[in-house]
Design a protein that fits this description.
Residues 1-26 form the signal peptide. The chain has 2 domains: 31-79 and 160-324, HAD superfamily/HAD-like (Rossmann fold), CATH 3.40.50; 82-152, no CATH class. It is built from 14 helices and 7 strands. The chain has helices at residues 2-30, 38-51, 82-94, 107-111, 115-120, 122-134, 139-152, 168-179, 192-195, 199-203, 242-250, 266-273, 306-314, 321-324, and strands spanning 65-68, 183-191, 210-222, 225-236, 257-260, 280-285, 317-320. The longest helix is centred in the first third of the chain and has 29 residues, at 2-30.
């Protein structure tokens, strides 16, 4: 009897050890593109803490909300934001129907390929470009246009489709969070209707989980039925302090985990990590000029300055693309 009891106890210990090792291996495999280090450990520790039933930091699945910025956090944002490239291409496509653009700025410079002059036109010039390329049509027409464009649009620097210029470690992180019953959202300064057609196929994030900037829309009944017409007026800018507002308006719950890469994500991370209980805030730092791009404080796109300086004080983890990511793109 005593031998049987001892054998049973040993077997129990062995089974427990195997189960623990299997769980640890599963965690490592789930984040296989992450090098072992502080960033990866912070993710695993956080998820373990908030999913341990009965634990001090346990969070019910319904409240496990995670938000991700898009540009520079989930996919490449250099040499310019993808949606800006879309707007430029749309102006060029529409140009034959607008001969007046040949003598009107900023369209004249854009059509001539003078990007410095386009940049010099400032926010007003870019707003004009966005206005003509994103409005004056039904939302269904815009969705079709954006969907068709994204299928073939390539990054001029990498030569890959924009939808292939996505970060494998972040895809793994999204899947890891979802496997642990997190509801994952994109919260981006990009246009909400520009992103919704392709985020599910690209990231596994459905359109209803996308929060972004938007133009005003008007409900109109036509001979073909009701449509939503896109107006040339901004309704909401989901960037900087607008991100917490967008989160509340669309999600209705405060995130417990948030991921960004620029000062435009500062308030989103601040909102998430100053809430009650265990939280996680992480910032992707583009410091790998060989495998991707190296930029931060001086960049026009993905400007990272204040958020990097305040990361330690705020308790945010800086993710080094160079040191923390074993691979960057899925096809590596």
């Amino acid at each position: 009897m005593r031998r049987t009891a001892i054998a049973s106890a040993v077997a129990t210990c062995l089974i427990g050890a195997v189960a623990f090792a299997s769980a640890a291996l599963a965690q490592d495999d789930a984040l296989s593109s992450w090098n072992d280090g502080a960033a990866k450990q912070a993710i695993v520790d956080f998820v373990s803490a908030v999913t341990e039933e009965g634990g001090a930091d346990y969070v019910a699945p319904a409240d496990r909300i995670a938000t991700f910025d898009n540009d520079g956090t989930l996919w490449v944002e250099q040499p310019m934001y993808v949606q800006l490239a879309f707007a430029f291409d749309e102006v060029k496509r529409m140009a034959p129907d607008h001969p007046e653009w040949k003598d009107t700025e900023p369209f004249k410079s854009l059509l001539a390929g003078d990007m410095k002059a386009v940049a010099a036109s400032g926010k007003k010039g870019l707003a004009q470009i966005i206005g003509v390329s994103h409005a004056g049509m039904s939302n269904a027409e815009f969705t079709e246009t954006a969907t068709n464009w994204i299928k073939t649009a390539k990054n001029p620097k990498t030569g890959r489709l924009n939808t292939d210029d996505i970060y494998e470690p972040m895809l793994e992180l999204i899947d890891y969070l979802k496997a642990n019953e997190f509801d994952v959202f994109i919260v981006s300064g990009g246009g909400i209707e520009f992103m919704r057609p392709w985020t599910e196929a690209t990231y596994g994030i459905p359109p209803q989980n996308v929060v972004g900037s938007s133009v005003k829309m008007t409900y109109k009944v036509t001979d073909d039925g009701p449509v939503l017409m896109r107006d040339a007026e901004i309704a909401f800018v989901d960037d900087g302090p607008g991100k917490p507002v967008g989160i509340q308006s669309h999600i209705g719950k405060r995130p417990i985990a948030s991921f960004g890469n620029s000062d435009g994500d500062y308030q989103m991370l601040e909102w998430a990590t100053t809430g009650p209980g265990r939280t996680l805030g992480m910032i992707v730092h583009h410091d790998d000029a060989i495998r991707e791009f190296a930029y931060d404080r001086d960049s026009q796109f993905g400007h990272l300055d204040k958020a990097m300086d305040d990361a330690a004080k705020q308790g945010w983890v800086l993710i080094s693309m160079k040191d923390d990511w074993a691979k960057i793109f899925p096809d590596e």
